Amino acid sequence: MIIDVNPEFGYELVCSIPYAYWLHQRGELDGVITCKNMKPFYYFCDNVVEKYNHRSINNNTNGVQNLPNTWIHHNAIAVFGKGYGDLTEDEQHQVNGVLDYTKWTPPPLLDYYFDSSIDLPNKFVVVCNRYNLEHGERPVGFFNIQCLYDIFIYLIESGYNVIYKRPRNTEFSTDPNEIENLDIKANVEGVGVITDYQLVEMLDGVFLIDDYIDKISNNYNESQLKIFSRASGFVSMGGGNSILCSYFKKPVIIYVNTSKDIRPGYFEGDSYFKKLSQSSIYPIIDKKDDIIKRGYNDYSELYNTIKKVF
Mind listing the pLDDT tens digit for each residue in 37-66? Predict the structure, then answer.
């Protein structure tokens, strides 16, 4: 069996890689065709071709249509034997975030990439942010400068270092929502206008992930997998980054604004988020429509959860 995919990053992490590893364990995986720099995720396969420079959000043509799970948000047919629209409200809650796991085994990324010899900060939390166009619209779901400052200061004062990740979208194959990388800025009293990257430089104990990537490997994904394997936990925006964080058996706090993962029950029960490595998952739901209506992001529950977990 050859897997040939170039979907959104999250889809590949959830639908493709666990299927590939399941095939590998059975001796049935002949090869993988995927996006550039994705070979580290398929470390168990000797025949990996990094063919694609761009990802597609069309799940009818990007290869997901050929996998056991063709939809990241549920597999109602596998769970209940009927379509999502035919389920009761209670059944929909039970199936949200639940897939067909009969041909699904996540690879042990933590065990494979953990390396204590790499020079990294002691006892660190990875904070994953994003600030991209969201289906052509300006983003509403992100950690702003004040939020980042509050998170960083709390973690530092609690004895943690912080590694901050916000890709510039040049490190890997992008999908249409990642074409333009925008600036996160704020006018800080007594300092002036700064970006999130500059905020990191101003604080002791906070480091850009970029400062470690090239020192570890010439492959961005291999480096970040090794960094993530050493983390004490994660604070992440929803989406592909939060899924990646969930592979490493550590607490993951996820700030969720859009998509189907705001549905009730999505992170509970047999959710794939939990099954990736049995991480403790803490979803913070702040719906996009509510943010737009009130005119600002509500990070209060996020702060409270960080204080409980770390």
Answer: 999 999 999 999 999 999 999 999 999 999
* pLDDT tens, residue by residue, 19-41: 999 999 999 999 999 999 999 99
Measure the CA dihedral 262/268/271/273, to 10°: 80
- Tell me if residue 137 falls in helix, strand or coil: strand
Within 10 Å of residue 190's Cβ, how many Cβ atoms?
A: 4
70, 83 in Cβ contact below 8 A? no
Contact by Cβ (8 Å): 164, 127: yes
Grouping H, G, I as helix, E, B as strand and the rest as coil, residue 306 is helix
**pLDDT for residue 175 is more than 90:** no
d(CA 158, CA 217): 30
Q: Smallest Cα–Cα separation from 139: which of 110, 101, 179?
A: 179
Q: How far apart are CA 9 and CA 178, in angstroms?
A: 11
The token pair at 166 is 């916000």
Widest CA span of the chain, in angstroms? 62
Distance, in Å, from the CA atom of 86 to the CA atom of 81, rounded to the nearest integer, reads 10
Cα-Cα-Cα-Cα torsion 227, 228, 234, 239, nearest 10 degrees, comes to 120
> What pLDDT was estimated at residue 181?
58
